[in-house]
Amino acid sequence: RHFLRAAAAGQPGPSPELPPEPGSAPGAPKVYLETYGCQMNVSDTEIVWAILQKNGYARTKELEEADVVLLVTCSVREKAEQAIWNRLQHLKALKARRPRARAPLRVGILGCMAERLKEEILHREKLVDVVAGPDAYRDLPRLLAVAESGQQAANVLLSLDETYADILPVQTSAGGTTAFVSIMRGCDNMCSYCIVPFTRGRERSRPIASILQEVRMLSDQGVKEVTLLGQNVNSFRDLSEVQFQSVAAPGLSRGFRTVYKAKAGGLRFSHLLDQVSRIDPEMRIRFTSPHPKDFPDEASTVKLSETSPDRLSQVLQLIQERHNICKQLHLPAQSGSTRILEAMRRGYTREAYLELVHHVRDSIPGVSLSSDFIAGFCGETEEDHLQTVSLLREVRYNIGFLFAYSMRQKTRAHHRLQDDVPADVKKRRLEQLIATFREEAARANAALVGQAQLVLVEGPSKRSASELCGRNDGNIKVIFPDTELEDAAKCGAPGRAQPGDYVMVKVTSASSQTLRGVPLCRTTLSRAAASH
């Protein structure tokens, strides 16, 4: 699935400390949270913290201070799980040297790995006190209370309706410039390689009203970019309003199919995107991850434009028309071989995927594309692999997430297919895919040299305190000198850009992952859109 850059190698991502809830009792138990894996886990971490904060817990960013350590885990590949087992050995040592005067340290495993490996986690060396699956976070206060009595406690029940819609997450992203908003949970696609339907359950969507409430709250807090999150965002379907329950199911374009029956009823993703984009004209909107099959020919209750092109999907039209919806799309391909796509149960051919790419580029000039690829899936031949290489060259993505195949128990591939590509071949093929991606991304990014790009400042560059770092509309990292800048409206004194500011930057050089440039002025999202 779509992985955080910072956590792609399975590195922990402890979130920064937040102030305790007003009025929380002195001596409240302190919880330390670590997040592994995908952006959904970042969102889940915020939900977990919101629940624990309301139940009297305090937050710490110091592991040694913690009374409770919770790891929000990933199961998508073996390497991600191994990172957790390694971390548990470190926590075992921490438990052993804890002073006897203090209450015993409690350790919890949350999320997808908890769902997949509950029994093994509980029994291996008795290291873990609490195990909670992705749909059991409301039960954490009870589970922790059981653990306080010295017993192990677990809840990995999957739900058909849990979306945590009534829980406003406490944002943990540094600086408060960007935020993730979960709009749905689970997945019904059942791709043969994917563990997600088994660890996160069936697909269900949050009511639009609760999503809009959360985005408005974030806008009031000064957040400048929101990413709408789901395993398959463009199959979003809010069934909470009775009058929309008879809406026709969307059609699929030629070359696309699905493993489940078309689902009628509900407000669709285009309606949500329309409403979210209207909340704050100075807030950028992104979304991930969509599925290629769910873009074309959507049924929608939204009237967007009198001049909409024929057969242009409502979502693509919104991206084209709204200045604050980023001109960036994640189109996970996974393979460039139709034969392998069939084995993966992706629901499209190479030709249908490329037709969608051309349709997107015709509809949204200058769009930035990202994708996911798996090297060495079951039965992949050298010819299949070379077709993926050629797809990378033909599409020329700006951003890519590429991994070697890792067989997961419970998946269709585990039951029906053979993991028959040797590890050294997977490694070689992955290295070739990465090299090809970087070569083409460098070419794509080089085309931006000389252009002015609107950058949302995130903070200082990690490599130099004299430079700032942010992202452009296409979600590409941009680095530029931290200098005094004029305001484009000429209404304020010159000043240095701060996190959350929009800065126009002229690009002077590019690599496969980063743009560098010189800042021109501070501006706003609306003013920049009006001037183009």
Automatic annotation (TrEMBL):
PROSITE patterns given in the database record: MTTASE_N (PS51449), MTTASE_RADICAL (PS01278), RADICAL_SAM (PS51918), TRAM (PS50926)
Protein name: Mitochondrial tRNA methylthiotransferase CDK5RAP1
Any single biological process term in GO: regulation of protein metabolic process
A GO molecular function held by the record: metal ion binding
UniProt keywords, alphabetically: 4Fe-4S, Iron, Iron-sulfur, Metal-binding, S-adenosyl-L-methionine
Pfam families reported in the protein's UniProt record: Radical_SAM, TRAM, UPF0004
Homology family: Belongs to the methylthiotransferase family. MiaB subfamily.
GO CC annotations on file: cytosol; mitochondrion
Lineage: Eukaryota, Metazoa, Chordata, Craniata, Vertebrata
Record field: compositional bias (Pro residues): 13-23
